[in-house]
Specification:
Blueprint (H helix, E strand, L loop, with lengths): L7 H48 L2 E4 L6 H4 L5 H20 L6 H4 L6 E3 L7 H12 L5 E9 L2 E8 L3 E10 L3 H16 L1 H11 L3 H14 L4 H17 L3 H14 L4 H13 L3 H14 L6 H11 L3 H14 L4 H13 L3 H14 L4 H13 L3 H14 L4 H13 L3 H12 L9 H15 L4
Parallel strand pairs: 1-2, 1-3
Antiparallel strand pairs: 3-4, 4-5
Helix pairs in contact: 1-5, 3-6, 3-7, 6-7, 7-9, 8-9, 9-10, 9-11, 10-11, 11-12, 11-13, 12-13, 13-14, 13-15, 14-15, 15-16, 15-17, 16-17, 17-18, 17-19, 18-19, 19-20
């Protein structure tokens, strides 16, 4: 028998064999543990993902039923649902491209995610199954397109709200236009703040903006946050219409309830300016700037006050500060045009107001300034057209009706000029900013009526 102590090679082989056996045992144990635990880990992760999906504010756009005539052209119920989803997203993008005030600030927060259900197994479909098992009612947009002779009508319903849209009058080849008209109505019920901004931006006539927003206040059961936004947008419309006292009432109430909101304080400052209170306006602008140092629009308000005081060079310096922060702000471009007109630089002013109307084609102030610039160029027809458009956009604005009276008088249409002036006077006492224009018009009418003069 061989002595192990005298056979080191055999002892080394045995040790190596024991090491290999230990490694195999450890690896086998690791594999067994891994295969036992891994399914549990996968199940836990999947459960967490499904729970998160369940709690997401998701709204499904169900297939939209269509007439056979449309389906034959490839516009199936599923395709129309996808197109409606596109229009819902487009309505949101349009609002957030607003350059006039601050919708991207106002609309920060949770909003629902829209999707069209996909057939087959997916995380979302598993979440739907779980919702059904838990008794959580799905949020779903459904509806149909109806053909009425040679016209199309869209009806949309939202789970929990019933019918939310009934829109018609579109030609057979205007399916996308029909869906674009219906899409914002979905936002009205799922994210009212966005819908309010949509009205303020797209209606184009300030009296209609205020009417529709007021209807939201009365009928839609808004929460406090959405109600603030709607009231502020009504105030904004009044400012665009030159209605200082009414805008002041709205923004004063908003400031009283939200004393640290710089936007509301700035709105009150704008109202102060329209009411002939430049010092109070500047105080509000200073406070708004403390609360919101990055608010580029405050420079416009300050520049307006400085311009009204007659320091055009300083006003120009101030408005340029705002435009350096936001070069496409139409309100600032219009204000700079006003300053340039007073500096005798009409061509530069014309370019500025034309740019402003590209960004905000509904702006009454920009159309009014364009009219005054046309008068300065002795383009009476162009002046009257621009001021008529301003009056259409803001039919209760004394400013635009006084401007229109001047354009009529310039063209020798005295009766129309007097009618426009009387329209302006029908809105209440003459604002201080219009007193000199109104007095000049009255003198002109007296001179025309008295040939001896």
């Amino acid at each position: 028998m061989t002595d192990p102590q005298k056979n080191p090679a055999g002892e080394g082989a045995a040790g190596k064999q024991r090491q290999n056996h230990l490694f195999v045992s450890l690896w086998t144990s690791f594999q067994a543990a891994l295969f036992a635990v891994l399914p549990v880990i996968i199940l836990v992760v999947l459960t967490i993902m499904i729970i998160r999906e369940i709690h997401q504010d998701t709204i499904e756009v169900a297939p939209i039923q269509v007439p056979a005539r449309l389906a034959e052209t490839g516009l199936t119920a599923e395709v129309v649902a996808l197109r409606l989803l596109d229009q819902i997203a487009a309505a949101e993008r349009l609002v957030k491209s607003e350059r006039v005030v601050r919708p991207n600030v106002e609309l920060v927060g949770q909003k629902p995610d829209f999707n069209v259900p996909i057939a087959g197994i997916s995380l979302r479909s598993l979440a739907d199954i779980a919702r059904n098992l838990l008794g959580i009612a799905p949020r779903r947009v459904s509806g149909e397109i109806i053909q009425d002779e040679d016209k199309l009508k869209l009806r949309l319903r939202l789970a929990g709200h019933g019918q939310i849209a009934d829109i018609g009058g579109f030609a057979l080849n205007q399916v996308d236009e029909l869906l674009a008209a219906g899409a914002p109505e979905v936002w009205r019920f799922v994210f009212p703040k966005l819908y309010a901004w949509h009205l303020a931006q797209t209606l184009g006539v300030e009296t209609e903006v205020r009417e529709r927003l007021t209807r939201m206040l009365l009928l839609d059961g808004l929460d406090a946050d959405a109600e603030r936004t709607v009231r502020a947008l009504i105030g904004r419309s009044l400012l665009r219409s030159g209605r200082g006292e009414e805008a002041y009432a709205i923004f004063s109430a908003l400031v009283a309830n939200n004393p640290n909101d710089g936007g509301f304080i700035y709105g009150r400052g704008r109202a102060h300016f329209l009411m002939g209170r430049p010092d109070a306006a500047m105080q509000d602008y200073a406070r708004a700037r403390q609360l919101d140092p990055g608010a580029f629009w405050i420079h416009t308000g300050v520049a307006q006050v400085i311009r009204a005081r007659g320091d055009y060079a300083k006003a120009l310096e101030e408005i340029d500060k705002g435009l350096n922060l936001r070069s496409d702000d139409p309100t600032a471009l219009t204000e700079k045009g006003e300053i340039m007109l007073r500096l005798g630089r009409s061509l530069e002013a014309l370019k500025l107001v034309q740019d402003a109307l590209v960004y905000d084609p509904f702006s009454p102030a920009a159309h009014l300034l364009l009219g005054r610039l046309r008068l300065a160029q002795y383009d009476s027809r162009g002046a009257l057209d621009a001021m008529t458009e301003a009056a259409r956009r803001a039919p209760t604005s004394a400013d635009v009706h006084v401007g229109r009276a001047e354009a009529f008088l310039f063209t020798g249409q005295t009766a129309e000029a007097e009618a426009s002036l009387n329209k302006a006077l029908s809105f209440g006492p003459v604002p201080a900013r219009l007193e000199s224009q109104v007095a000049r018009l009255r003198r002109a009418f007296e001179e025309i009526g008295d040939p001896a003069n």
